[in-house]
Design brief:
Blueprint lengths: L2 H14 L9 E4 L3 H4 L5 H8 L4 E4 L1 H15 L15 H13 L1 H11 L5 H14 L2 H24 L6 H20 L1 H18 L24 H5 L1
Parallel strand pairs: 1-2
Length: about 230
């Protein structure tokens, strides 16, 4: 059936249902060319007879496309964990930042996997979950993310094809200066980082406490007298 024949069927069906096409002021279909085509689509032939019947892409179909696309996004590489490459710092950044972004989903997934009947998989998840749900891990992750976010532009530039040595040295110097400024103001910067980690731990229901130390292990920094800020700094 051609587009013209289909438009005739639509108009005839409306008449058969007792609808007066004189008052036809709109038409909506999916975005297929056969329906929405400007020159040979069904909507064009209907508008030839009813100029007020403006075409709109069907809202229900748009919603369906949006939901379908959203479901596919979760399957893309953007939302898959990446291996931590031992040599490429650019890959370090991508892997760590992505892990931080996906932490809620990771924790939820591991929690579910611990209940799987497969003993090897559930056992691995049972070991990983408590390791992630520690203040020590979250603090280390926050520090790693902070450092990599500073070094990432330099790392990415050093992997470009048309590398300019002068620009590379300037970029390296900028990274060094940025880190030096953080070191000069380390108390304030680290306090801010610790507060953000504590907030994150509370969100994930992670216990915010220090590992107990014996006086003989470190008499100067005995557990009872330490704050979280001092302990991890």
């Amino acid at each position: 059936m051609s587009e013209k024949e289909l438009s005739d069927v639509i108009l005839k069906s409306m008449t058969d249902f007792g609808l007066n096409t004189k008052y036809l002021t709109g038409q909506g279909y999916d975005g297929a060319a056969a329906m929405s085509g400007r020159y040979n689509g069904v909507q064009k032939f209907i508008r030839d007879e009813h100029p007020s019947a403006f075409y709109l892409h069907c809202s229900a179909h748009c919603l369906n496309l949006t939901i379908t696309f959203s479901c596919k996004v979760s399957e893309s590489n953007r939302f898959k964990l990446k291996n931590l490459c031992a040599t490429r710092w650019v890959d370090h950044h991508d892997a760590v930042i992505l892990f931080e972004e996906l932490q809620p989903a990771i924790l939820h997934a591991l929690d579910r996997i611990t209940l799987w009947p497969d003993s090897d998989t559930s056992s691995s998840a049972s070991h990983l979950l408590p390791a992630i749900r520690q203040l020590k891990f979250q603090t280390a992750l926050a520090i790693f993310v902070k450092i990599l976010s500073i070094s990432f532009p330099l790392s990415r530039y050093l992997h470009t094809v048309n590398l300019d040595l002068k620009t590379a040295l300037e970029a390296a110097s900028n990274v060094q200066n940025t880190i030096q400024k953080i070191r000069e103001n380390c108390d304030v910067k680290f306090q801010q980082l610790v507060l953000s980690v504590i907030t994150l731990c509370e969100k994930f229901d992670i216990t915010v406490s220090l590992s107990r130390q014996c006086k003989s292990d470190n008499p100067e920094y005995f557990f009872e007298s330490l704050s979280i800020h001092t302990f991890y700094r």
